[in-house]
Amino acid sequence: MPTDDGPILGLHHITLVTSSEQLNRKFYTEILGLRRVKLSVNQDDVFHRHLFYADDPSKGNAITFFEWPDLPRGLIGLGSPHHLSYEVPSVDVLIQWKAWLSGNGVPSSGFYPRDGRVSLYLRDPDGVIIEIAARDTEKLSTDYLSGTNLPEVKQVSNGMKLSRFDHASPITRDPAATRRFVDKALGLRTSFTRVNPDDKESSTTGIGNYAHPDFLRYLSSPKTHSGYVGTGNIHHIAMAVEGDEEQLKVLRNLDRIGLRNSGIVDRFWFHSLYFRDPDGNLLEVATKNPGYAADEPLESVGSSLVLPPWLEERRPEIQKALNEEDRTNPLRWPPRSYPKVPDPPEMLSVEVA
Ligand SMILES: [Fe+2]
Ligand SMILES: [Fe+2]
Known about the structure:
The chain is α+β, with helices and mostly antiparallel strands. The protein has six helices and 17 strands.
């Protein structure tokens, strides 16, 4: 089997939009069991927070959020990806997740056995669709998955940790155009295009490298409408490269094919390169280093507001604006009405809850 993967290693982080830092922190740390690994501000909009969560700050796969309380709810569609997915080791763990979510008042879907894995879906309080997928389907049986006898789960155990993304699902109108784009721009390969079992009029296209052939699973339909990014939506999807040298290779290639891009942007914890796919989905290529421990000890990353050096002199005015935002945006947990999980979960038209 060929193993000559290009510079793109897989997913680095996925960035979304939340209406409330407090609500977001409660959900991602206390319910999903992640650790906040960075508390900072949006470097392009410095009076709003940028929150980072991960299971392990020394590794990639962070889920990050811009806090924009005044932004309306977003709409899933072209340019506004559908969902993201975490990988867990087994169906047993998936069942533990269902029990844990239910015990915390978070609705989740039934179990969806398909495509060599079993998936459970939920939404965060802002409406983001989150899939938890198990590839080990050894114990798969209808009885086992009926979920009528859920175990008692008192905490997110080590075995349940959401440490790795399985995939992210943007939307495309034209999978052939996406296929050409990822090949020419990023050196990624398309591993399959098949009917989407949740929506027979649409298809799923797996894109990735040899190590992880479908870390992007584009959903597509010629009838797809345009989306817009707002609270409860994915803002952009970042892929990882090893370091600056590999990132430069990607940049040179984007320039060579004439694809408009941001150039290299120093985000302090990593270096970023932004561009859009043919459907307007915002993508990023980010370096693995320097990492979240570049400016604070690994043990205490995320515990207090950190700013990149070039923003440090503005700390008083930034802190004042954030305090004011908290005053007018108090914690609302549990949410007044919890967003409903779509059924089936990967159909393209999703109602705004
Ligand atoms: Fe999925
Ligand atoms: Fe990013």
